[in-house]
């Protein structure tokens, strides 16, 4: 049990956070486009 065991967990957490942020940015961008069109 060392860095090799902890690193994959950290990577998974970071990846999930990045995915959530990416989806939120996409939604914000989409809504901004919709508002500008109307």
Brief overview:
It is built from one helix and no strands. By secondary structure, the chain is an all-alpha fold. The mean pLDDT is 90.
Molecular structure report:
Keywords: Plasmid. There is one protein chain. With 38 residues, the chain is an all-alpha fold. It has one domain (1-37). It is built from one helix and no strands. The protein has one helix at 3-37. The longest helix is centred in the middle third of the chain and has 35 residues, at 3-37. The radius of gyration is 17 Å and the shape is rod-shaped. It starts with a helix and ends with a helix. The model has no long low-confidence stretch (mean pLDDT 90).
Query: How many individual β-strands?
Result: 0
The overall average pLDDT, rounded, is 90
Shape: rod-shaped
- Rg, please? 17 Å
Keywords: Plasmid
Helix and strand layout, with pairings?
Layout lengths: L2 H35 L1
List the keywords.
rod-shaped, 38 residues
């Amino acid at each position: 049990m060392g860095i090799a065991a902890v690193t994959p967990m950290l990577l998974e957490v970071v990846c999930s956070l990045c995915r959530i942020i990416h989806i939120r940015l996409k939604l914000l961008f989409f809504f901004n486009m919709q508002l500008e069109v109307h």
